[in-house]
Every structure is written in structure tokens, then in C-alpha cells.
Design a protein that fits this description.
The chain is mostly helical. It has twelve helices and no strands. The chain is 77% helix and 0% strand. The chain is globular.
Length: 294
């Protein structure tokens, strides 16, 4: 890993590890839509300014519009569920559950007739991930009375995100990543604004923590996170990139304990370990090249 890629790699890990905690800190009372709306508006403005600075035009051909819809609907649905569920679920568990995205993406791709073969390692990985998910859901019954609905909401977000990734891939639009992010964020803002107006209709009171967390999510959690991730995937082997999904759930759990005083019991760590083991098996063929890198 060269000196230019390493900071980007570490940046992705840092951003992905802190995003769930920042989502919780950005929340303001019962209004879970406005913090998301504010984040997406900040992210969209940043994307527009960057595109103007580098003179990149937003494509409007049919495939591009299809990709914006596929990505935008996934972000809109998944983030609404995450922001609602984050009020009841520890931030570290949000990162753990989103570690299931590759597993659910594989399942959805298989159901849709993907050419990928379900090898023994992939099947074992999916089963281990589901067992780990069951352990975590069992733990949710004694975390709090409202923990289970929050878990279900975040799991629904994971499924929507996975389906969106498969959809975007099947569209196959050859457009810059920044353009895809800008187009999808435009759709998310367009859908979130009327939803917020119908459900709440007034700007909630923001603390300094709420405001700074929302600003962080808009700039780093949305724009910088996507940009660094696509840069890393362009310059590193798939196995090295896949390691990020094995690191961030653990780091997010530790950050939640340290900075947010979240209680993580043995059963949560056991479920997390099973999910990560399943994820490792599922991506075994991608992880193998890592051991060969000198």
C-alpha cells in the first residue's frame, strides 16, 4: 500500500466507524427526518460546488437517470430507517448490522439470477452471518423495551441498501462516482423535504452537538466518505478493500463504548464475531490476495 493510498484507506475506516455515532448525536428529539434532510442538503451543496470546481457536468441520459433513481431510493429508504432506529439501537450495533450488506447483496443477487455461484464458503458465510444476527436480536430483547423495533428498522435499512447496490450494478451506467452521488442526493432531498414537512413541519431546536454532528455527516459521512472509498477501490486489491468491512464494526462498537457509554455485553460481541467470521468466509476469495501482498 503506497503512501498516498494509506491515508485514504485509514480515512474510510475512520469515517465508517464514526458515522453511526454521529447519526445518534445529530438526532434532535422525535424529529428524525430533519437531521437527515440537513445532512443531505449539506452533502448535495458540497457535491455541486466540487463539480463546478472541476467542471464536471451531471449526465442526464436515460441510464444515468435510472442509476440516480436506483441509488437515491436506496439511500432515502435506508437512511430514514437508520435515523429512526438509531434512537433505540446502540451506534456500534448499527455498524455491525451494516456489515451484513455484502451477505444480503449476495443473497439478492442470487435470487435475481446472478451468474455468481454459491460456493460452500459463501453458503457457510451466509449461514454464520444469520446465526450471528439471531444472537444479536436475542440480545436486543434485554437492551431496552424499544430495542427490537429499532433493530428491525436498521435491518430493513440494510436490506434496502443491499437491494439498491444490486439495482445500481444491474443498471450498469458508466458515469463518474461524484455524478452518481450528486444525482442520488438530489432525489433524496426532493423526497425528504415533503416528508419532513408532512410529519413535523418545523425546525427542531439544535444543540451544538446536533449541529456539529450533522455538519460532519454532510461533509465527511456523505461526500468525503464516498470519494475516498471509490479512490481506495480504484488503487487497491478487492481483498484489501474487503478488510474495511471487517474492521469498522469492531471499531464502531469500541467507539460507542468509549464516547457514548454504550453497554455491549458478551452476547453482542459473540453475534458480532459470528457475523464477521461469516463475512470473512463469504469474501474468502477476495481476501486471499491480501496474504500475498508484500
Amino acid at each position: 500500500m503506497n503512501k498516498r493510498v494509506l491515508p485514504a484507506y485509514l480515512g474510510v475506516i475512520l469515517i465508517w466507524s464514526t458515522t453511526p455515532l454521529a447519526i445518534q448525536w445529530s438526532g434532535s428529539g422525535a424529529d428524525f427526518v430533519f437531521p437527515l434532510l440537513a445532512r443531505m442538503v449539506i452533502g448535495l451543496l458540497a457535491c455541486v460546488m466540487i463539480m463546478a470546481a472541476i467542471r464536471l457536468k451531471l449526465p442526464y441520459h436515460r441510464a444515468a437517470l435510472h442509476a440516480y433513481v436506483a441509488a437515491g431510493l436506496g439511500i432515502f429508504g435506508a437512511m430514514q430507517l437508520v435515523y429512526w432506529g438509531a434512537r433505540f439501537v446502540p451506534s456500534g450495533l448499527i455498524a455491525v448490522l451494516f456489515g451484513l450488506v455484502p451477505l444480503f447483496t449476495g443473497i439478492i443477487g442470487l435470487l435475481l439470477g446472478s451468474d455468481d455461484r454459491l460456493s460452500f464458503a459463501k453458503l457457510a458465510g451466509i449461514l454464520l452471518g444469520l446465526v450471528g444476527l439471531g444472537v444479536i436480536f436475542g440480545a436486543g430483547t434485554h437492551i431496552g423495551a424499544q430495542a427490537m423495533p429499532g433493530f428491525v428498522a436498521v435491518l430493513g435499512a440494510v436490506m434496502l441498501q443491499s437491494g439498491s447496490l444490486v439495482w445500481v450494478k444491474r443498471v450498469g451506467a458508466s458515469i463518474p462516482a461524484l455524478a452518481l452521488t450528486t444525482g442520488s442526493l438530489t432525489l433524496v432531498v426532493a423526497l425528504s423535504l415533503p416528508l419532513w414537512w408532512l410529519l413535523f413541519g418545523h425546525i427542531p431546536t439544535f444543540t451544538a452537538q446536533n449541529a456539529l454532528s450533522t455538519l460532519y455527516l454532510g461533509i465527511f459521512g456523505s461526500v468525503a466518505g464516498f470519494t475516498l472509498y471509490f479512490y481506495v477501490t480504484k488503487h487497491l486489491q478487492a481483498g484489501q478493500v474487503a478488510l474495511i468491512t471487517l474492521i469498522t464494526p469492531v471499531s464502531a462498537l469500541l467507539l460507542g463504548q468509549w464516547l457514548n457509554h454504550e453497554q455491549v455485553g458478551f452476547d453482542i460481541w459473540l453475534g458480532t464475531a459470528l457475523i464477521l467470521l461469516g463475512l470473512g468466509l463469504h469474501q474468502w476469495q477476495q481476501l486471499l490476495p491480501v496474504s500475498r501482498v508484500k
